[in-house]
Specification:
Blueprint lengths: L5 E2 L5 H11 L4 H6 L3 H22 L1 E4 L5 E6 L19 H4 L3 H14 L6 E9 L8 H16 L2 E6 L2 H9 L2 E8 L6 E7 L2
Parallel strand pairs: 4-5
Antiparallel strand pairs: 1-2, 2-3, 3-4, 5-7, 6-7
Helix pairs in contact: 1-3
Amino acid sequence: MEQEIIRLGPAHRDRAVATLAAAFHEDPAMVFMLPDPASRARRLTRLMRWMVDQHLKIGLVLGTPGVEVTTLWRPPGAVHYHEPLWHPGALRFIPIFGRHLPRALNTEDGISAHLPAGEDWMYLKMAGVHPDHQGKGLGGRAIRAGLAMAAERGVRSVLETATESNVGLYQRLGYATISEWDVTGGGPHFWTMATGE
């Protein structure tokens, strides 16, 4: 029996953080920003806690009831939401990125520069399946649930990935590449992708 996709809330927060931290441990962008493998899991947990909390506040968090998959979406009106890394609360990012904070800034700048203009989008900021549950179609199911919400709103969806093997998956879900680019400072290659008209 297929697991349903639901809107996750504060009660799911810790499991969502754990799922995303595990799913992104070898992601090229995360490896670039958090190059020390010994501390990456701890730093990723802090980063994902911030990301999940942000999307519980301004967006949508979708996944299975057991949180084997987590997707973070920004609805129209929040696509270009940007909490600058340099602001009064920026000290929270020092324990995450340490001396590699410039790499995170370069990555964020690249992502922001390649997002399409306007707010008429559903932005898939992150999608992750816990490694123990990959290969079961959970990621595709969660993304299709978000795409159904985009269709209900009459908007397209946009995402970016630094994992080449994900490009084909996203294409099968209806996305096409609209730009390819590299993070300055020797960072990874990214694909920015969007659904059709």
